[in-house]
Each structure stands twice: as C-alpha cells, then as structure tokens.
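Subject: Sanity check before I submit

Could someone independently write out the structure tokens for this chain? I want to compare against mine line by line before I put it in a report. The sequence has 186 residues.
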Amino acid sequence: MTDSFSAFDGSHRFASGTRACVIKAIKKHLERQPQASLLVFDDATGNQTDLDLRDSGEQPAASPPSAPASDVSRGPGRPKLGVVAREVTLLPRHWDWLAKQPGGASVAIRKLVDEARRTTAATETPRVARERVYRFMSAMAGNLPGFEEASRALFAGDAERFAAQIESWPKDVRAYALGLAEGAFA
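---
Independent answer below. Compare away.
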C-alpha cells in the first residue's frame, strides 16, 4: 500500500500526497483558517484517519518503544523469516489429509492459501475497491442527495448509474469518489 493521503476542508480537497506533504499542507491551511473543518483520508483504504500535526511527517509514525531484546521471550515460529505460529482448528480428516502431503501440513497449507489468493484476486479487487469507496462516501457524502442510490449502484457494479447519482455532489467529493472507484466496476 502506498503512503498517500487526501485532506478535505468541508467538501473541498486542498491537499493530496504523502503523509509529510499533507501534514505540511494542513499546517498551512490551519494558519489561514484556524476554524477549518478538516477530514483526512487514506487513499489506499478510503478510511478516515488522523495525522499527528506535531510530527513533521518525514519519518514513519513512531511505534511504541519495545522491550530490550534480552527480556523478550521467543515464541514459536521463525520471526526472523516473518513466520508467525498461530492456532488452526481442523477436523481429523483434514489433519489426516495434510499429514500425507509432501512437506507436511505447513507447506500444504501455504500452497493452498497461495492458490486461493491467486484464484480470488480478480473477484476480490472490485470488492475491495467498492468497500474503499463506500467508506469515503459514508464519511463525506452520507447526507448528500443520491447517496443511497449511489451506494446501491456501487455494490451492483453499475458504473453509469453510480456516476449519474453522484453528479450533483461537490466537485472534489465527486472526483475523489470516482478516483477511489477505479477497479470497483471491473
């Protein structure tokens, strides 16, 4: 996912770009208009997000301090390789089948998951895009005329009806929704 955000003051989008770029733009905007009503969205997910304006935005968001390495107990898995052990509950017949697979249960499960990811990627992308657009629409356009019909058109995969329903929306809201909708109507 990219580090890309968009900031709105009411229905006007005044900044788009990296976290650092948007934080700078927000600071400047607030100097000119301290009473501005700002919302920031993650361009990859459509989620409304908060940016720490005390941060310059140049570095990734700080993570909480971790315990010293000597105090950390090592659990199952291979953390240096990114392997995480978790519990999986299966029926006995599933375990029997997995035990017969070359490489054992873990290799077989990884292969099954990879195959499922490849086969569902085409159908998952429109669903993910629709959910991304809907999250943005709910926050910014929930009270605008045509919201419900636009939502129905979005989830029905009807691009023409969707575009027609949002035609009366403010220009920046409409443009951003259409941009987020790329891939939603494939």
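---
OP: Matches mine. For the report I'm noting this point. The chain has six helices and six strands.
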